[in-house]
Amino acid sequence: MEAYDVVIIGGGPAGLAAAVAAKENGIQKILILERDRELGGILNQCIHNGFGLHTFKEELTGPEYALRYIKKVQELDIEYRLNTIVADISPERVITALNREDGLLEIKAEAVILAMGCRERSRGALNIPGYRPAGIFSAGTAQRLVNMEGYLPGREVVILGSGDIGLIMARRMTLEGAKVKAVAELMPYSGGLRRNIVQCLEDYGIPLKLSHTVVDIKGRERVEGVTLAKVDERGKPVPGTEEEYTCDTLLLSVGLIPENEISGNMGVELNPVTSGPVVNESLETNIPGVFACGNVLHVHDLVDFVSQEAAAAGRFAAEFIRNKKENRQNQKGNEQGETREIRIIAGSGVRYTVPSFIRPEHMEENLTLRFRADRVYRDCYVCVYFDEKLLIRKKRLYAAPGEMEELILKKAQLMEYPALKQITIKIQEA
């Protein structure tokens, strides 16, 4: 059985940043396991610009952003294995993996960082009536076909869902000569970033139909058209509002699901809202020594924030290993000093928070708390309650589910409240 200090599952932007941070924090034996044929993950097919503004202070494409981290991994001599599938991870952090060269592998890790990313929700989850013709793709699949394989999925396109990938593919298909007839969104607001709505739809005259969904797909062998209908506040189609669109392609951008089958099987507690692990201030799950970061934890809107979060996970994994080695004699390990837990509650207007709880004694000086609004708010306040006491009230001109919100919690402030049991985050209209 092979042994490593840190094993990272996934070689995308989260896995790469975590590996670099762990190495820079003194960990020597690091292994990245990646199932694809190259490092970089989803960034390899994101050839549009807009990446790296926060991390590198310049605008990069997805492959350029990934290359920066891949070069760092290679310079730091971090080991990685490609075309390697992780089949199982035990609670004792024994990883079972397989590839063509080595066959079945068993790897013992002192710490594991989960960075598997997420997958797209498929048509099967939507219950759209109609046959199963060719021409129905997820937006990410279409992106890969166009940008990496050199195939154009179709000439006349309707897109269901206004997530960022769907918006970007509306522009990309237009630039490749296809006609995008409409982008339909079930919710009364878009699920993507405002800049993408402007740059990908408005700049190209592509209509965004909010509170609409696909109620029928025409065609047996190939998509011949779709029927859109307006939906009421419960998401049910309104009779008499149907519109017919002829098209040969339907792209689905209807949500991303964190890849947590392995996490769940090893006993990691999952948040029902995010479908990602429940973590503390150190991004550590309920299993000691198992950390999570990036889109496997919760779906991010910017890769720069993924890298920031992953770098923190790498630092915390390194700290865990150092503490474990220091405390090997007394066998207390990571449990030492865990005296107080403060729950983070998603109150009115907030869908979820990451982390879900914090231990003030284990915090860094500043903790970045990330959360999302449950709907669109204009001229609102983000309020932070320590138990029942309002302590922080920040003005926001705009908050939407498609854009992640951040708050900084200070350790010094938390230490002033030794009896604090929970922190509640709320969004309140002005």
Please, could you describe this protein's structure?
The chain has 430 residues and is α/β, with parallel strands linked by helices. It folds into three domains: 1-119 and 255-336, FAD/NAD(P)-binding domain (3-Layer(bba) Sandwich), CATH 3.50.50.60; 122-254, 3-Layer(bba) Sandwich (FAD/NAD(P)-binding domain); 339-430, Immunoglobulin-like. It is built from eight helices and 27 strands. Strands 1, 2, 5, 6, 7, 8 and 19 form a seven-stranded mixed β-sheet that branches. The protein has a five-stranded parallel β-sheet with strand order 10-17-11-12-13. The protein has a five-stranded mixed β-sheet with strand order 22-20-27-24-25, with no helix packed on it. β3 and β4 (60-61) form a beta hairpin. The longest helix is centred in the last third of the chain and has 24 residues, at 303-326. It is globular. The model is unreliable at 332-338 (pLDDT under 50).
Structural class: alpha/beta
Global shape: globular
Strands, total number: 27
Main beta-sheet annotation: 7 strands, mixed
Supply the CATH superfamily name of the largest domain.
Answer: FAD/NAD(P)-binding domain
SS element count, helices: 8
Top-tier CATH class of the largest domain = Alpha Beta
CATH fold description of the largest domain: FAD/NAD(P)-binding domain
Q: Quote the average pLDDT.
A: 94
Radius of gyration computed on alpha carbons: 23 Å
Percentage of β-strand residues: 25-35%
